[in-house]
Amino acid sequence: MNLDRLHPQARAALGAQVRVPLTVDNLAEVRASMVDATAAEVGPGPEVRAVSDVDAGGVPARLYTDGEGRPTLVYAHGGGWVMGDLATHDGLCRHLARVTGWAVLAVDYRRAPEVPFPGAVDDVSAATDWARRAGPVALAGDSAGGHLAAVVARRARDAGRPVAAQVLICPVIDPAMAYPDLDDYGLHRDEMRFFWDAFAPAAIDRSVPDLDPFRAPLAGLPPAVVITAELDILRDEGERYAAALLAAGVPVISVRYQGVNHNFVRKLAIFDAAHAAVAQIAAGLQCHSAPADTA
Fold first, then answer.
1. From the candidates 143, 147, 210, 212, which is the catalytic residue?
2. What confidence tens digit (pLDDT) does each residue in 143-157 have?
3. Is 183 a catalytic residue?
4. Which helix (H) or strand (E) holds 166?
5. Catalytic pick from 108, 129, 212, 232?
6. Containing domain of residue 109, as a range?
7. Rg (CA), the chain
C-alpha cells in the first residue's frame, strides 16, 4: 500500500472498523462489526424535525423530515447487500434530510444470503411506489445500495413512472468485477466476490439488467449524480456507468474525490470530503426538485 496516496483522514478510516473474516458462518459477527463502528465513522448526525419508523408498502423503513419534507429521497443502504441497516446509515440520512430539505426514506430491505436477488430490488421498488403517493421521488444509495438505486430507477422508467433523479455513491454496477489494483485501500475484490455470490448465487443469470445495469438501454433514465473515490476498487465501474449514461443523453454530474477510499461519504465523522459530497448531492437534487411526474 502506498500511504502517500491516502488522505490522512482515509488512513484513520482504515482502522475504524474491526475487520472480521467474511464468511456465511460468521455473518452475525460481520454485521455487528459494521454497527459497532458506526459511532466512530458516522457519528449521530444532526437533529431533524421528525424521524419515524414506517411500513412502506410492506417494507420496513425510516422516514426523516426536516422542513416541508417533500419531495422524498428513497435511500438504499450499502453493505454488499449483506450488511448494513437503518442504524448504520441513520447519521447519513439525517445529514441528507437536513442539507437537502427533502424527506429521506431509508429502506430496510431484506438482505442476502438469507434473501437473495431479487428480494432487495423488489423491496426498494415497493418502498419507492409507496413514497411517490406523497409526491415526487428520487433514488439514492451507497455501494450495493447504489446498485439498487440504479436498478430501481430503470425499473421505474420502464414502468412509465420515472423518478426525478438518481444518486449513486461509490456504486456497485458491474458483476464482471474487473477491478483496478486498489485492494489495499479498504474494500477488497475477495469481499466483492463474496457479496455478489451471496446476492446472486451461481444459478442466477447475472447478465439480466436487474443485476447488470449496463445491459439495459440507458436513454431516458433520470438525471444522475455519481460520486466515486480515487482509492476504491468500484471507482472505474461507477465512472464507466456515468459515462454511459451521459452518452445516452442522460444529464450526469460525476465527481471523483481524490485521496479517499470506498464509501467515504457515509463516514461523516471522519471525512471532511463527506460533507462536501452531501452538499453536492443537495445541489444536484435541487436541479430536479420539481419533476413532471407527481403521481
1. 143
2. 999 999 999 999 999
3. no
4. strand 166-169
5. 232
6. 3-286
7. 17
